[in-house]
Amino acid sequence: MNYRHAFHAGNFADVLKHLVLVRVLAHLAAKPKPFRAIDTHAGLGVYDLEAEEAGRTGEWHDGFGRLDAPFAPEVEALLAPYRAAVAAVRARHGATTYPGSPAIIRESLRAGDKGVFVELHPADAQTLAHRYASDTRTKVMHLDGWTALNALIPPPERRGLVLIDPPYEERGEIDRLGASLLKAARKWPTGIYLGWYPIKDVSGVDRMAAALDAGLERPALRLDLMIERPDDPARLTGTGLVVINPPWTLAAEAELFLPALAERLARNGYGAFRCEPLGREE
Ligand code: SAM
């Protein structure tokens, strides 16, 4: 387990992932019925952009660091809850903080909602458990996220989301994501699933998306954001998320925020996006 998210917090991939996460959380919180958010690869929850790790890569400068200027009003309206979540975490933990997914989820929880954060790295799981020890709405589990997913669904609330955000250190993790999503969507068909992936060699993403398209009994969306010309399969040139059972507004929202992010986060003048339906129409 060499991957350390502290080097990458706030980068362009986090921006897309956390923006979509916040859109889905807002959708769940729009109804009074309680929900549960399960984060299978949770990380540390809070990162300091002035710490040595973030400083060594400087990745956040080309991610969250590029969002200072406002977007067009219709895009800004979609980003507002994400900006509010970052601001709320900064108010708690300091002005140079960037939130990880557990911190973002926690800001959305109401009294009856639950956040379950699974992390395999022993020290990170301990840090996370310590940070949220006094918050009875949250639970931290030191487990393998892939195994925990199967055990944690369907949750008692029967309403909620699962974020799967693995480090992609091992070969075949993109196919594992597709297979796990298919299996999970069979076990808990009405859950909202967000599966994150990096884009280096797009053929792996295409293969995973085709497997989901063929096998899913539920509707899904593939949201890709490219910030560099994809001409070197060894380089991270984009990122994406598969969202199963997306809120009905998400496709139209993505058609607004994806081009805006592609333009703002583009490197060497290249930015592109894709927003495609997968699986079965509702
Ligand atoms: N979801 C976090 C966020 O958005 O802030 C970032 C997660 S980071 C990309 C991936 C995390 O997965 C790392 O913290 C790593 O220690 C953890 N990890 C690696 N293998 C794991 C496994 N099998 N089960 C659970 N966590 C794992």
From TrEMBL:
Catalytic activity: adenosine(2030) in 23S rRNA + S-adenosyl-L-methionine = N(6)-methyladenosine(2030) in 23S rRNA + S-adenosyl-L-homocysteine + H(+)
InterPro entries, A to Z: RlmJ, SAM-dependent_MTases_sf
Pfam families cross-referenced by the UniProt entry: RsmJ (PF04378)
Binding site for S-adenosyl-L-methionine: 18, 41, 101, 119, 144-145, 165
Active site: 165
Site (Interaction with substrate rRNA): 3
Annotated keywords: Methyltransferase, RNA-binding, rRNA processing, S-adenosyl-L-methionine, Transferase
EC number of this enzyme: 2.1.1.266
Biological function: Specifically methylates the adenine in position 2030 of 23S rRNA.
Family (UniProt): Belongs to the RlmJ family.
Subunit structure as annotated in this protein's UniProt entry: Monomer.
UniProt-recorded name of the protein: Ribosomal RNA large subunit methyltransferase J
Record gene name: rlmJ
